[in-house]
Amino acid sequence: MNIESFSGAATVATASTIVFALAMKSWHFISRRVNTGPRFADGINREAAQRFRDELERIMASQWTYLSAALVFVLLFVSAYVLRAERIYDGYADRQLYILIGLFAGLGILVVKLLIENQLSRTQVELLRDANIVIGHHLQSIAAGFGRVYHDVETSAGVIDHLVVGKSGVYAVQVVAERPVKSGFVALESNTLRFGPGNKTRSIVSMGKCTAALEREFRRLLDHRVRVRSVIAVPGWEVHDQTGEEHLVVNDHSLPMLRGWTDQADYLMNEDLEALQQMLGAATKA
Questions:
Q1: DSSP label at 87?
Q2: What is the rounded CA–CA span in Å between residue 78 and residue 82?
Q3: High-pLDDT (> 70) share of the chain, %
Q4: What confidence category does residue 97 fall into, taking pLDDT thresholds of 50, 70 and 90?
Q5: CA 25, 29, 33: angle at the middle one, nearest 5?
Q6: Residue 104's pLDDT band (boundaries 50, 70, 90)?
Q7: CA distances from 64 to 61, 140, 200 (A)
């Protein structure tokens, strides 16, 4: 394969692949904008891990676009070479053609980098999705007679993964997704989760900000303070020491502990409970 043949075939294949990728991306963009949402949306609330399911769908669509574009490039490159596309660069100096090939190689490296980042994002989102699904399912099973469960509750400070609202109070359940390890444990020290064995840590300050933001929204609705208890769920990890009463750390098996974490001062009056449930039901429509 001489330099002219390679350059000509690569040019045809690259130009066609770019057009194909832009067409696919445009189609995905238009489809998302045209989509009017689910039918009977008034009767559908968000499911557990809904935002992670949506994000995973977007990542997979992007991944398939890149892989399809790579296949299109290979097919067009072979076809262009067979059809003697080197005539495009007749008369060009070899130095110019080598520069062009370098540009194509750089573009190929960029595509590989995007595919690797895409796969890493997909793996992380899948972990977040699965962790939120297992916690969401456990919450649904323990919520009978205790309260209603809402998912992906948006606040001015971020999104609360799950919210349990019942007569005994309001519980914000935030999920921390870390891949479980053998004999792994988690401990709460001030506003930091420490994972062992090892020294990996995770700050929970942002979770406290979400809880505080939700309390402010409830105050605006009811004209008095409603305490939102912070529950941190770490599925797959044994829970060791935790300091303070500001947060309750649980795993997927000890989640029912939140039913016993009550205070008479946090109990809700019937009219307040109904107002909160109406507000949250409207805010978490699919």
A1: G
A2: 6
A3: 91
A4: confident
A5: 170
A6: confident
A7: 5, 34, 34
- The rounded distance, in Å, linking the Cα atoms of 220 and 245 is 25
Amino acid at 101: I
Please report, for the chain, the start and end positions of each structural domain, with discontinuous segments joined by +: 3-133, 146-283
Q: What phi, psi does 239 have (nearest 5°)?
A: -95, 125
Say yes or no to pLDDT of 283 above 60. yes
Q: From CA 173, how far away is CA 146, in angstroms rounded?
A: 15
Which residues touch 188 (CB under 8 Å, ≥6 apart)? 194, 204, 232, 241, 242, 243, 244, 247, 249
Residue type at 148?
Answer: R
Highest mean pLDDT, choosing among 19-23, 25-29, 88-92, 97-101: 19-23
DSSP symbol at 86: G
The CATH classification number of 146-283 equals 3.40.1350
